[in-house]
Specification:
By secondary structure, the chain is an alpha/beta fold. 20% of the residues lie in helices and 15% in strands. It binds 2-acetamido-2-deoxy-beta-D-glucopyranose (4 copies). One 2-acetamido-2-deoxy-beta-D-glucopyranose binds next to loops.
């Protein structure tokens, strides 16, 4: 009899765990679905609205469409049922003008297992808010933000995501000296693409030593920036580097530029 009630108790516990998290009928977590719908609403689309994320509908009892894991550009974990990847690049559907959108990072916070977020090629203009909450996306390993107009204000936001392994900041209108002081926190970074910005390198010796903290960095793309030769000693401080791209910079001297290869050969 005692064994029986323990069995019932553990059954009840299991059921309540399931009900607390996953919504049994709809197939995806309700709070995650709402987060996606909030993001879609924030896009505030007027032209081609029926084409942009058209499978993202909120109607209850809408058959397959109600399960946000089946929505376009969304990938869920087979194990947890949570969203792990969001591929939201190039959403514009022939919109030729820049797209004025205020991205609210807080919108993504319910996606606790999010590992990859791609917002690239949207030509988003506007503010990025809720930035401090980015630190809560502690499972985020890949972040692709390229080809938007986020400017330098995006940098303090990104450097809060300390688990990042892959980061693309291509063509974001970043300018001035590269804030390595902030980036040194991203010790797990393996891939960093900073190309097509106006970054320069007034890199002090101290700044250079900070590059050495990026000890997992294997690929570094710096093309089409304003870095000059003063960046070279800094690059040589990154000991694990396997891929390095330096085209269209303000480098001078004959190739191979002294210093770059001596460290690896
Ligand atoms: C889930 O399983 C399918 C089919 O086995 C597989 O193609 C897909 O990659 C898996 N998804 C994830 C996120 O692992
Ligand atoms: C987008 O542009 C392409 C090429 O001009 C065209 O074939 C397609 O129909 C357009 N799509 C929409 C939704 O307007
Ligand atoms: C951002 O989203 C959060 C959560 O949905 C909300 O509380 C906050 O007011 C939003 N901030 C802005 C500036 O819209
Ligand atoms: C390199 O760039 C930095 C900052 O942009 C500047 O201070 C420095 O004079 C430049 N060095 C050379 C050799 O041009």
């Amino acid at each position: 009899m005692r064994g029986h009630s323990i069995l019932i108790a553990s059954w009840a516990l299991a059921v309540s765990i399931i009900l607390n998290g996953r919504q049994l009928c709809s197939g995806c977590f309700l709070e995650e679905k709402h987060a996606l719908l909030d993001f879609k609403a924030s896009l505030d689309v007027t032209t081609n609205a029926h084409l942009i994320l058209s499978s993202w509908t909120g109607k209850e009892g809408d058959g397959a469409n109600d399960d946000c894991c089946t929505w376009e550009r969304v990938r869920c974990s087979n194990i947890t049922g949570r969203i792990v990847e969001l591929h939201l690049s190039d959403l514009r559907e022939n919109m030729s003008e820049y797209w004025y959108v205020n991205i609210n990072i807080s919108t993504f916070i319910p996606l606790k297992d999010l590992r990859a977020l791609d917002l690239s090629y949207n030509l988003f203009q506007g503010e990025v808010t809720g930035c401090r909450n980015w630190a809560k996306l502690q499972n985020l390993k890949s972040l692709y933000l390229g080809h938007n107009f986020f400017h330098n204000n995006i940098i303090p936001c990104i450097t809060a995501i300390t688990e990042l392994k892959r980061l693309s900041l291509v063509d974001l209108d970043l300018e001035g000296s590269f804030p390595i002081e902030d980036f040194k926190r991203l010790e797990k970074l393996e891939f960093l693409d900073l190309s097509y910005n106006q970054l320069s390198g007034s890199l002090s010796f101290k700044g250079c030593r900070n590059w050495a903290k990026l000890q997992n960095l294997k690929s570094l793309y710096l093309d089409w920036n304003k870095f000059n030769n003063s960046i070279i000693p800094c690059i040589t401080a990154i000991t694990e580097l396997k891929r390095l791209s330096l085209s269209y910079l303000d480098l001078e001297g004959s190739f191979p530029i002294e210093g770059i290869f001596t460290c690896y050969l």
